[in-house]
Specification:
By secondary structure, the chain is α+β, with helices and mostly antiparallel strands. The protein contains 13 helices and 9 strands. The strands form 2 sheets. A 5-stranded antiparallel β-sheet has the order 1-8-3-6-9, covered by helices on one side. A 4-stranded antiparallel β-sheet has the order 2-7-4-5, with no helix packed on it. Strand 4 and strand 5 form a beta hairpin. The longest helix is centred in the C-terminal third of the chain and has 19 residues.
Length: 281
């Protein structure tokens, strides 16, 4: 059964293009050359069928086989070939969306073993298989909703916490844990929920003075300026994605009126909202 009102889904400002989707299904024939560029992104491969051979750092060769999931190091580009007809789901993201308060990347840091690899492996348990079947259904029906994909990414972290030990999670996610200092991970996770430096410091369970000192050390920028840059990126992105009028969009972005949004754009982008949209159309 096809989903209803597909055009309405596509017209939503939170609808992702297939290219920008966090989850992608790959069905490839045998002897097909592949390139996986995970530089700057955290990448995870769920092998559903077949076998793939890939090369990574130091000319190491790894075989990815059906029934297993793999974490890739975000610093490398992987090349390889399918050894048989293969099907996989690849999940890539810049920052993790973890809604489970008890699944803390920072707390897992102490469980990371001394020896880790550029590719880590864990079995796809039946519970993960059920989850992946649901994800395949969404992708097959082009349900590329940003909210849905964030929820599904977070659901995976729930499953990982529920069915794998802290030691297994620490080794599997070591690239994600080490890829950023724990303080940086925490700031990026909490910043989505706040508007001011004081609120961000409180969310990180620090006094504002202590928070500012740590922030300047790890980000080399004042926290107020960093929050401003995050907000600018969000405003520009929403203007590019959304087809809503400014009166509708302004309150969604935290502005009191469309005039305030227009003034913001002129001040920080030297353009009107219409010019920003036109430049990126």
């Amino acid at each position: 059964m096809d989903i209803l009102y597909f055009n309405e889904h596509q017209q939503c400002r939170h609808y992702l293009s297939e290219v920008r989707s966090l989850f992608k299904v790959h069905e490839l024939p045998a002897h097909h050359r592949i390139v996986i560029d995970s530089k700057g992104l955290y990448a995870f491969i769920f092998m559903l069928k077949g076998e793939v051979e890939i090369n990574c750092c130091y000319d190491q060769t790894h075989r990815l086989t059906a029934g297993n999931m793999y974490s890739l190091n975000e610093q490398y580009t992987y090349t390889g070939i399918t050894l048989s007809d293969a099907e996989s789901i690849i999940l890539m993201f810049e920052n993790p969306h973890i809604r489970c308060d008890e699944f803390s990347l920072i707390k897992l840091r102490k469980y990371i073993p001394k020896e880790t690899h550029c590719i880590e492996k864990l079995p796809i348990l039946p519970q993960i298989t059920d989850y992946l079947n649901g994800m395949r259904f969404y992708i097959a029906h082009k349900m590329y909703c940003a909210h849905l994909q964030d929820i599904k990414q977070s659901e995976w972290f729930f499953l990982m916490r529920a069915f794998f030990t802290k030691e297994e999670n620490a080794q599997f996610f070591h690239s994600l844990i080490r890829g950023n200092n724990p303080f940086i991970i925490m700031v990026k996770q909490k910043s989505r929920e706040v508007k001011t430096v004081a609120e961000l410091a409180s969310a990180c369970n620090m006094t504002e003075r202590t928070f500012r000192r740590h922030f300047k050390q790890y980000f080399q920028i004042a926290p107020k300026q960093w929050l401003l840059e995050q907000n600018k990126q969000q405003v520009e992105l929403e203007l590019m994605k959304s087809e809503d009028g400014l009166k509708i969009l302004a309150p969604q972005l935290g502005f009191c009126s469309d005039t305030q949004l227009s003034n913001y754009c002129r001040r920080y982008f030297k353009k009107t909202p219409s010019e920003i949209r036109k430049a990126n159309s």
